Amino acid sequence: MTVTRTTRTARPYRYDLTVVLTYYLPYTSGLTEVARTVAEGLAARGRRVAVVASRHDPASPVRERVNGVDVFRAPVAARIGRGVLSPGFLPLAARLARASRAVNIHLPMLEAGPLALLTGRTPVITTHHDDVWLPPGRLAGLQVRGVDASVATALRRSAAVVVNNADHAEHSRHWRLMRGRIAPIAPPCREREPAPAAFRDGPGPHFGFLGRIAPEKGLHHLVDAFRTVDDPAARLLIAGDYSKVAGGSVVGALRERSAGDRRIRFTGFLTDRQVSEFYASLDVFALPSVAEESFGISQTEAMMTGVPSVASDAPGMRVPVTSTGFGRLFPPGDSAALAAALLEAAAFSPQQRAEGARTTRDRYGTDGCLDSYDELLETLGAARRATV
């Protein structure tokens, strides 16, 4: 990666880094968790960090301090599909960006382009998670083109573009704009403490998914694949919030597709402790997404605990499996191949599981991610501590 060191005249800065994204706590998604873990991790290392997001939950305060991070939320006037209309979001983010040594904009985001143009002399770091994807609809094409245009502007203005891995970046619609300035930094994956297998129900193989219950996750393929498993003791656990999914959940359609199969369970939202118990209950983790995922944090955290992953063989999400050998891949959308891969991974030996867990922990721990962000900030000349 080639980045340009930024030299500027001394002036007081309120923050070392301002992180900008549409959804933040209490919303839960892979993107949100990356932003939160990096923000709180850098704050714990002594940096002054702010986060700007929409106030998607009216019960959330406009401003609060969470684990050392100053969180600012702009009121939402309306919701459009997965997005929100917040007139105050852009001015708030631009003001704090200009008062910071660096700004980190998480993509895709409709406001990314205008924000990147309003940051003044502040170096822009964009984190490119995914190309925007929307289920088919009357206005979907128009929305995608609008977001893509904004993302392109932000990328052109970026001093560096953080990507979860080069495999995903090279298959992005925006690769031409990212090439030459990417900083591959794997997202922070948490090593969880051992926990009881509280979700286990019987001696049969337990397959599971944890994430947003959304169309692009391909969960209909997972349900179809599992229903071909001829074992009454087998279980499929689908975990994740389906009451507050941006753009709407598909849990109703999945329940219909399950056709009363009592071996399939929808757990709903899991607390932090329950997530550890969930992983401890599984024999195999499944990531059957049909749209591109840049990585798959939940699959990697499961792998860290000794649970192999079965993932779609698509850019980004296949990397944790290909880099560690701990799991199996299948062609996206192929339910028969998915079923075969699930059963093959379920047969992994205890030795394979222990070795896979060690390899995954060594490669994808949180400290390495934070070290890389620290180094990037140093390179951009944003290392000096902020002064109030």
From TrEMBL:
GO terms for molecular function: glycosyltransferase activity. InterPro entries: Glyco_trans_4-like_N (IPR028098), Glycosyltransferase_grp1 (IPR050194). It comes from the Bacteria. Transmembrane segments: none annotated. Keywords: Glycosyltransferase, Transferase. Residues 30-187 form the Glycosyltransferase subfamily 4-like N-terminal domain. GO terms for biological process: carbohydrate derivative biosynthetic process. PANTHER family: SULFOQUINOVOSYL TRANSFERASE SQD2, TRANSFERASE. This is Glycosyl transferase. It comes from Streptomyces tsukubensis (strain DSM 42081 / NBRC 108919 / NRRL 18488 / 9993).
